[in-house]
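does this look right to u?? magnesium ion version
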Amino acid sequence: MPEGGLEVRGLVAGYATATVLHGVDLTVAAGASVALLGRNGMGKTTLLRAVCGLRPPTSSAGSIRFAGRDLAGLRPDEVAGLGISLVPQGRRVFPSLTVDENLRIGARVVAGGWDRSRVLGLFPRLGERARQMAGTLSGGEQQMLAIGRALMMNPRLLVMDEPSEGLAPAILELMRERLMAIRESGQSLLLAEQNVDLALAMADSVSILGDGGTVAWSGSSEALRAQPRVLAELVGLATHDGGTWT
Ligand SMILES: Nc1ncnc2c1ncn2[C@@H]1O[C@H](COP(=O)(O)OP(=O)(O)O)[C@@H](O)[C@H]1O
Ligand SMILES: [Mg+2]
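got this back:
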């Protein structure tokens, strides 16, 4: 595995009430983009939170390694310090801080990396609202801010939990374009999504979490496009004209 990648092996994790992940394997090589699919409740958020050192969930077996380091027992800020940034589900921003203040929190300067002007180039709307309280932004704008904030940390791996969730169609189109631009900049990504179209466009490879709390299918995005039945069965989607997913 190339240096800098994420390696999850045999991860068992969950909550006091139930174990959700029953032995999950997942690899994101350095420079790669991986999408995590699966119906609601299959454990996508649980897995991403475990990777980022957030609790709950707690893990009881298996390992999570990043850039050759074992992440077991590390706090979220320590995981972030190793270069993993999370855009959590539900676009969390600090509502009573301004857009600019949100962007500056945790920012890490890297030569040639993401900085304020580059983030505002990607999301000009954030520049227009730089002094506005984040809590007064629309849902789509808050999602842009949450992504911008994570980019300002210049992560080696950007983890995003359903960035397209609940966006109006016009904003979804814009978001898709911007997410593609982030990917095309060479950013390593781990992306949980329910929007299969977006996931397939963004990712080189896909892992699908299934009922058993394990990875039910994994392979390249191309291979998954050619298997509409897998998508129908594991993601719960009808396919276009019964043919391949386009
Ligand atoms: N804080 C929690 N406490 C107890 N159970 C939880 C908690 N968060 C999620 N779960 C349960 O864990 C399972 C997986 O949830 P989640 O990881 O959010 O799935 P997904 O992101 O794929 O929709 C679900 O059954 C959910 O109800
Ligand atoms: Mg989720």
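The chain has two domains: 6-83+155-242, 92-154. idk if thats expected tbh
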